[in-house]
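Amino acid chain
________________
===
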Amino acid sequence: MIYDELEVKRIVNNVVEKNNCYLLDVIINQRGSKLFIKVVADNMKGIDLNTLTSITNELRDSHEFNEVVHLDYELEVTSPGVDWPLREYRDFYKHIGREIEIFHNLPDCKSPELGKLVDVDIDGIIVETKGGENKKYLYSEIDHGRVKLRW
């Protein structure tokens, strides 16, 4: 590896935050002398195409980014998508009202639990189960959640 991965992530994070978003992941793969860099970013309302384009352009035009990478690279800046695992407040927040699956580590409940995401707070989430019961899950009890897609 002839690039500094932590420095790449630091630069990417700065550009993402400058665009009022937060960084979810930076995935770097090297094949031969070419790098494939995938940046996953979001914001509390859901990131739009203009913001993704702005982040892409700022990174491509960044002297600092190009100096640290200093290899031929392909850059992809994307949103997390509906199949991204939900793990913390900001992940769950924008999905209030949607049906979700909760994968958890509680021994006395089935996992995954399917229900409607009713509320999100600093400690956890509230899900209305199929039986109409509101069940609170602490983030520490949740492995991850997923938005349930209806086809």
